[in-house]
């Protein structure tokens, strides 16, 4: 993937992060409270999934589930305790986004419980 495409993808990821943080905030979330944040990543094959799983363990993420799309693509749901504030969430998601790309995968976003 070209550097331009990667930067464009990271820009989209930052925008999705902003929207997710705003949704939490709109629901009364205390964005400064650490909590488990789940992340979803999908792959074209199990080889990429396995390589990614090894990489993210080194970043402190833990496996919650192996998942599969309706089209049969393998994926992972991983989590780590982090703070979902706008100032910090890009530092959490962009390394996952980059690692997914390097392993032939697609980072598909994150979710968190609302903490008041």
TrEMBL record:
Top-rank lineage group of the source organism: Bacteria
Gene3D superfamilies reported for this sequence: RraB-like (3.30.70.970)
Name listed for the protein in its UniProt record: Regulator of ribonuclease activity B domain-containing protein
InterPro entries (alphabetical): RraB-like_sf (IPR036701), RraB_dom (IPR009671)
Residue ranges of domain Regulator of ribonuclease activity B in the record: 15-111
SUPFAM superfamilies: Hypothetical protein VC0424
